[in-house]
Write a structure and sequence with these properties.
single chain, 391 residues, alpha+beta, 9% strand
Length: 391
Amino acid sequence: MNDTTLSRQAYRRSARDWVVDSLMFLIALGFGLLGAVTVPGEPPPPPKPELFTMADQLVALGGCLALWWRRRWPVRIAVVLVLLSAVFPLVGGAMLAALFSLCVHRPPKVGLAVLALGVLASYVNLLLHPAEHGAPFLVMFLLSTVLLGAVAGWGISVQHRRQLYASLRERAVHAEAEAQLRAEHAQHRVRESIAREIHDVLGHRLSLLSVHAGALEYRPDASPEEVGRSAKVIRESAHQALQDLREVIGVLRAPVGELPQPTMADLAQLVEEAGDAGAGVEFVEEYTGTVPERTGRTAYRIVQEALTNARKHAPGAHTSVRVSGSPGRGLNVDVLNGPATRAAEPPNRGPGNGQGLVGLTERVSLASGRLEYGRTADGGWSLSAWLPWPS
């Protein structure tokens, strides 16, 4: 593909462009004809050489035809027509059209520079062709300057209005894109909250199932009483897990605040269920007053995640849970478990993918609290959290 083909594609006119260009051509042509025709009843203008008159008409016609290419070379055509208008009066209409188009499509400083050249050309034209009927030179020059300034100002105002519309459209597009990003971000946050809720609700139940199922698998010599007790825990935990799952799924379309949330009142039942799994769990409550709902919910999730991890990674270990604090001093949650007394489950067994402590850290951070965890000297695990409790 050569440069000529690219140029034709770059300046292909639309239907609107054809209408505008045709009007420009007709207006410029009419302006030239109006200057060449003498109004009946008025004295004829001073005679001019026939050769100059013919040249003036040909230049005016050429100027009108040149307007068809003003979109491709706006500066060149405008400058040439301005210079020709200094000598040939009939090309003034085409010159004004080219000046208007230049001010519309080019920066204002370019249009003002050509305007200044046009004022100079108008001055020269009045010197070469004095006004008819003895009109004062200064008056004609001021009228010509005002006409040139009005055309240039009109073109610049059209350009500014187009730029304003373009900027408003761009802002609207940006605002729509930002609104979409905010909606996607909010949706992502809701999904994260739902995923965290499912992890917290089901992780505890499924870990109980895993512990008792593992006991039945690795202890074929267990007594009927032990088998029955484990089967009962498995059945109850599976039933409760299904109920919890139904509650979570039932509110997936609801706001995050409407998801089923535990409270501090449910903490004792949580510890009791952990004790039923076969590991000793000691529970100590040393706080006074009513714990705020958000703080109690976060404390519940801390204990829940700690007990789940203890069952998965330290089966059979003794675990102690201590909750203490008071209004104004904060709420302290300490969970400590010793080393495992039997082999832990393989990594691919049981729920979770190692993200529980990461999510728990985020949850405590959102509650403006602190979380610390790590191994103890005897091979166990310690988890301590502090949560704000306003007085």
